[in-house]
Amino acid sequence: MVPVEYYMLLSAAVFCVGVFGVLTRRNALVFLMSVELMLNAANLNFVAFSQQWGNLVGQTFSLFTMALAAAEVAVGIGIVLVLYRNFKDVDVTTATSMRW
């Protein structure tokens, strides 16, 4: 059986990759994928601790987080499409000109 520390280390690495993507990239699609990586890291922690403690609460939270991620992607893709229609680019820094 794999120790929980390995899952936590993998989760921390995936979360750090997601944070790096959010903080350094300007492309909206890469931004959304990085947020998904962070959510998947949290899901990995939920499932690992659920398996360690022998209950299903972590897996239930993981399913809720997956549903939340699916809704976030649907809204995010809509925002990306509007951004591309208005500015012909998916760079998130160009959206500051949408202000009054």
Report the major sheet: none
Number of domain modules: 1
Assess the beta-strand content as a share of residues. Answer: under 5%
Distance from N terminus to C terminus (CA atoms, Å) equals 58 Å
Structural class: mainly alpha
- Give the number of DSSP strands: 0
Element-by-element helix/strand order: HHH
Main location: membrane
EC number: 1.6.5.9
InterPro entries: NADH_UbQ_OxRdtase_chain4L/K (IPR001133), NUOK/Mnh_C1-like (IPR039428)
Pfam family, one: Oxidored_q2
What do these coordinates show?
The chain is mainly alpha-helical. It has a single domain (4-91), classed as Helix Hairpins (Orthogonal Bundle). 78% of the residues lie in helices and 0% in strands. It has three helices and no strands. The protein has helices at residues 4-24, 28-53, 57-87. Helix 1 runs antiparallel to helix 2 (28-53) and helix 2 packs antiparallel against helix 3 (57-87). The longest helix is centred in the last third of the chain and has 31 residues, at 57-87. The chain is elongated. The termini are far apart.
What brief labels describe this structure?
Helix Hairpins, 100 residues, single chain, 3 helices, transmembrane helix
